[in-house]
Structure formats: C-alpha cells, structure tokens
Amino acid sequence: GKVLEPLIALRDSTELTGAGKGLAFQLAETLGVLPRTGVAAFVKNIDQGERAKLRRLGVRFGEHYIYMPALIKPAPSAMKLRLWRIALRVETPLSIPAAGLSSVPADPAMPEGYYLISGYAVCGPRAIRIDMFERLLVQLRQKNAAGPFPLTAQLWSPVGCGVNDFEAVMRALDYAPTDHGEIAKADGAAPEIAVTAGPDLEDAAASEDEAEEQLLMALEDTAPPEPDISQEENLE
Fold first, then answer.
1. Closest Cα to residue 98, out of 116, 118, 68?
2. What is the pLDDT of residue 50?
3. Tens digit of each residue's pLDDT (9 = 90 or more) over 82-91
4. Quick check: helix, strand or coil at residue 235?
5. Which residues pair with 35 in a beta bridge?
6. Residues 16-22: contacts with CB under 8 Å, at least 24 apart
7. Residue 81: how many CB atoms within 10 A of its CB?
8. Looking at residue 205, what DSSP letter applies?
C-alpha cells in the first residue's frame, strides 16, 4: 500500500467515470503500464475531461505506452517485479536494472514481460526506460517534421548508449539513413536520418515538464487519422 500508493489511488479514485475508470482498472491490473496497441480503440473513447483527471492521478499518455512515471522508479519497480514473479510462478531470481540507467542491453534470455514490468521498453538491442523512450519519440518527431536530420550526441546520450546501438534503435523505430547506410565520417560529419514509416501521433507522451506537456497536447490536436493499413504494408 505504501510502495504502490499511486496505483492504489488511481484504482480507488471516485472522480473517474466511464472509460476513464475502465482505463484506470486496466492500469491497476497491469501494475501501471499498458502497451498502447492493445487499448488504442478503447482510449479513443476517453474524452479530454477524463484524460485530465487521469493525468492528475499520475497517468501519462505516450505514443507507445500509457504508464505511470511514479511506478517506474526503483522501489515500485522492484515491488512490481516481485508480484509479477509470484503471479506467473517465475522461479528464476530476477532484479530490476540498476537505478539511474536510462537503458540496458536487451537480454533475449529474460522471461517475456520482464522488461515491461520493470519499466523498460525493448527497442532493437536496447531496453529503454519507458519515460525516456517516450521522450525520445517526441524529440524524433519534432526533428523529422523539418526533414532529414543528423544524428548527434544530444539524441543518443540521454538514452544511455553509444552511436552504434542508437542507430539500431532508430532502425527499430523505422528511421533509416538517407545516404544508403553510410556511417558518420571521421571528421565528425553525421549521416542524416529520415523516417520511413510509423504510427500517427494521436496523443504523444506527456511529460512532467509543463512546456513539453503543452507541445504534446498540440501534437495530439493536429494529428491526422490513422491509416487503414498495417505498419508492415506502410514500410518503404
């Protein structure tokens, strides 16, 4: 009750109604993180009033995940991992990634669901902390809106990995070099990257930073409707 207090407060909230209350229930069932793909149609039925209530209760609507930042901190993540192991009868000793890491190498030997319950999203060779992952998505969309852009340390440093892993992360997000895959030259020139495909942004990742929150709400208001084709079909 103490360690997971934000989740319990969300579950027991009396101000939520309808679809907002339904989403709160689903978040409580999954210990504070939901892949957006599984609830996309349901989320569209949540009006702005209910979303505002959910945000006040600590819920963030990301491009790929709906999550509670308070529950990806070390103590809640460790508690969630214990509960998850008990529920699924996972006997292998497991611990969350070390505190303070924005990402870790994704280990394919880990049980399915381990990284998500620990607060990390697997993207290519890295498991990236969900809040940093969603912030990265917003930064990439901002840059790509102006056309191809260079890879710089300002992009990969917050993710906590080197340029080689970050290029693989970009490819996993459907970004690709515009110069046929050439790497950065020794003189410091960086390859330009352009997006080739990706889901439309309906409700980008909200941030604790007020300025970023306003940007994300603006992106949501101007997002085009989702196309009626699969991501695989949309790839160039």
1. 118
2. 94
3. 999 999 999 8
4. coil
5. 65
6. 16/50, 16/53, 16/54, 16/57, 17/50, 18/46, 18/50, 19/45, 19/46, 19/47, 19/50, 20/46, 20/50, 20/51, 20/53, 20/54
7. 19
8. P
